[in-house]
Amino acid sequence: MAKLKRWARELLILLLIVVGVVLVMDWWRAPQAPPAFNQQMLQTLDGEPVSLAQLSEDKPLLVYFWASWCGVCRFTTPNVSRLAANGGNVLTVALRSGNDLQVEQWLAGKRLKLPVVNDERGELSSRWQIGVTPTFVVISQGKVVQSTTGWTSYWGMKLRLWWAGF
Fold this sequence. Notes:
Layout: H1 2-29, E1 41-43, E2 49-51, H2 52-55, E3 61-66, H3 73-85, E4 90-95, H4 100-109, E5 116-119, H5 123-127, E6 135-140, E7 143-149, H6 154-164
Pfam families: Redoxin
InterPro entries: Redoxin (IPR013740), Thioredoxin-like_sf (IPR036249), Thioredoxin_domain (IPR013766), Thioredoxin_ResA/DsbE_sf (IPR050553)
Protein name: Protein disulfide oxidoreductase
């Protein structure tokens, strides 16, 4: 019994260290919203003009910065697509992944349906100071409320959007 208690205590300490490191890394790599970002109009691959303020007005919006060349994005993008298909409020930004046709072909090849803003030259991502892909930013009522980088699960995304709704 003593061994089990010791293992449980050590596991708890390890878990706390991992959570601490993750939180510090998220804080350190957090994107910075550009001034008046919520007033900027963006255009999706479908040609639809969108505003982050309008999209986040009624319910929190997940803005997902990704790239076709990003290894981790290959695991997270299908989950973002699933979230969008299940009614999640999602907008994605393809960072330096080619022209509109190349991004559309990449998505079609992976059988993914997403609302995508193509950031072909990386200008939008640069204004947001995105240094890591994937990056997830949650916006509620036109304000950035949280962000994270790296791999995130489907349920992790849903939980972040749910939490931002409070």
